[in-house]
């Protein structure tokens, strides 16, 4: 059986869980408390030298890191990844946008705000920088979603799964979502897509 | 003809140029001085609301952002992107590693060090954080390259193009490359792959 090593409360760990739920594929969830240092232990580093969750282990023991790489791996040949080369490239575009411009602000600010152990890192400068960067990223999403129902265009794709993971908690992380009504409406559309499961779900 | 908007000296802008050179595909290079604020001007933001180069404009005017999305778009069906699902997923993995764990440290530190206008941002804390983060990323590459000739395994792929872009300037950015002999040997293997062009090359 597939094994997903992840922290339940991590949006990155949630992404492959959400896709596997939609695809009806069974997997085993193994909790790894990355906030408590478990990803820096030798046994975990032997599996992922970059020391991050999620980590996927295939039935034959082969390993794959990076949440968005897992989405592309499982999404191939499904309704979540277009076959048209340009439409597919737009999915790639938004997956890289998510990891470069969105997650390092919104996910990081969420962690600074919600995890007590991060309090020392939650300096005014860092909170301000992630607020500004995340607000800019949400503005880019707002603009796209003001003229398209989904991030990569007309259909729900892997780009929506990736960007939903942390955008759903942007208000919790301190972003003023009243500035982004199209993003708020899109969050509801993502939740309405068949097979949706919440962040807390860790498998069948 | 394809148009690539980019800053010649940007490693991200160089990635699609290097791939197009290897593929022998003609394109028009349009210099956009992102370091001078050109990506924040309304005419550019109308093309890429995220305000970043590189930006690709297809013959019919359709646009694509994100350097690694361009690599996947042009790489499809070529020797640079495997067809085996798992081998392909490893390419994805390293492309996301590059944008999340490598570029935000090594490319950012390179910019802080080489662009005079960035001097005010080059605080001791920022230089130390990017030195630590980039050294960790280079260590992950060193470990992979100690047992494989290329980042995704046995063959040269898009992952090598993406990671070469800024690793080639890691010494300039202040990283001690004597710690990473396998990375140094890999840089030479990348330069020896057919069709290589240097960062300064902006088209035929």
List key phrases describing it.
2 domains; Glutaredoxin; 50% helix; four-stranded mixed beta sheet; alpha+beta; globular; homodimer; 204 residues; Glutathione S-transferase Yfyf (Class Pi), Chain A, domain 2; 7 helices
Largest sheet of chain A: 4 strands, mixed
Helix content, binned percent of chain A: 40-55%
Q: How is the CATH topology of the largest domain in chain A named?
A: Glutathione S-transferase Yfyf (Class Pi), Chain A, domain 2
Tally of individual helices of chain A = 7
> Approximately what portion of the residues of chain A adopt beta-strand conformation?
5-15%
Written as H for each helix and E for each strand, in order along the chain, the element string of chain A is EHEHEEHHHHH
CATH class of the largest domain in chain A: Mainly Alpha
Number of strands of chain A: 4
Largest sheet, spatial ordering of strands of chain A: 2-1-3-4
Mean pLDDT of chain A: 97
Query: What is the straight-line distance between the termini of chain A?
Result: 12 Å
Low-confidence stretches of chain A: none
The second-level CATH architecture of the largest domain in chain A is Up-down Bundle
Overall 3D shape of chain A: globular
What's the multimeric state?
A: homodimer
